[in-house]
């Protein structure tokens, strides 16, 4: 089995004091630990970086576009840039996965209800064996729902999602088996 850890939008513009993400420090630690394990087992780590339009916090080259300083981005990791919630849409992600013969995706990052959810669904629709760690993604509170409930809801949806190789495996980061 060939694993790819997909780390979505762990950028400074996603983590602000105005809209704090649930358990951000814990998430960074869990993603870094998982990335180290994936690398050690011969898998690949792919960081997905959102390119926002002019004036957006994720506008390229602005401070919000940069990765969080505590996220472990290594020189051998791959960076894929995107302009929509779907990390596959009009990006080189699928070509990279095919070239490296990846058959399992572990999808993590920010924001649960936007880019993480869209990418999980897109991966499942494309037939990838997909793992969505229940504690591997985050969101900020929304006006209609607190972040904890957003995360809980999406974990339940992904675990029951109808797809060719689905549903997604949903378990804690520490429970993911890489062999």
Give a structural overview.
- With 179 residues, the chain is of the alpha/beta class.
- The protein has four helices and six strands; from the N terminus they run βαββαβαββα.
- Strands 1, 2, 3, 4, 5 and 6 form a six-stranded parallel sheet that branches.
- The protein is globular.
Give the tally of β-strands: 6
Number of domains: 1
Number of H- or I-type helical stretches:
4
Q: Can you give the helix content as a percent range?
A: 25-40%
CATH class, named Alpha Beta
Structural class by sheet pairing and helices: alpha/beta
Under the CATH scheme, the architecture is 3-Layer(aba) Sandwich
What's the name of the CATH homologous superfamily? Isochorismatase-like
Globally, the shape reads globular
Mean pLDDT: 97
Largest sheet: 6 strands, parallel
Cα-based radius of gyration, to the nearest Å? 15 Å
CATH topology description: Rossmann fold
Helix/strand order, N-terminal first: EHEEHEHEEH
End-to-end distance: 7 Å
The low-confidence parts are none
The proportion of strand residues reads 15-25%
Compile the SSE list and pairings.
Elements lengths: L2 E6 L15 H17 L3 E7 L27 E5 L10 H7 L4 E7 L1 H14 L3 E3 L5 E2 L8 H13 L20
Parallel strand pairs: 1-2, 1-4, 2-3, 4-5, 4-6
Helix pairs in contact: 3-4
């Amino acid at each position: 089995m060939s694993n790819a850890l997909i780390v979505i939008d762990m950028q400074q513009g996603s983590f602000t004091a105005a809209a704090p993400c649930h358990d951000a420090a814990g998430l960074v630690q869990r993603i870094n630990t998982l990335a180290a394990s994936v690398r050690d087992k011969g898998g690949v780590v792919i960081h997905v970086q959102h390119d926002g339009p002019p004036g957006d916090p994720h506008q390229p080259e602005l401070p919000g576009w940069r990765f969080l300083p505590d996220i472990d981005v290594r020189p051998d990791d791959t960076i894929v840039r995107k302009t929509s919630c779907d990390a596959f849409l009009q990006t080189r992600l699928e070509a990279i996965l095919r070239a490296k013969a990846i058959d399992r995706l572990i999808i993590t990052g920010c924001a649960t209800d936007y880019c993480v959810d869209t990418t999980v669904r897109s991966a499942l629709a494309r037939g990838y064996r997909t793992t969505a760690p229940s504690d591997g993604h985050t969101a900020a509170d929304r006006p209609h729902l607190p972040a904890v409930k957003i995360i809980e809801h999406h974990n339940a949806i992904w675990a029951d999602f109808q797809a060719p190789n689905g549903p997604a495996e949903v378990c804690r980061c520490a429970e993911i088996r890489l062999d």
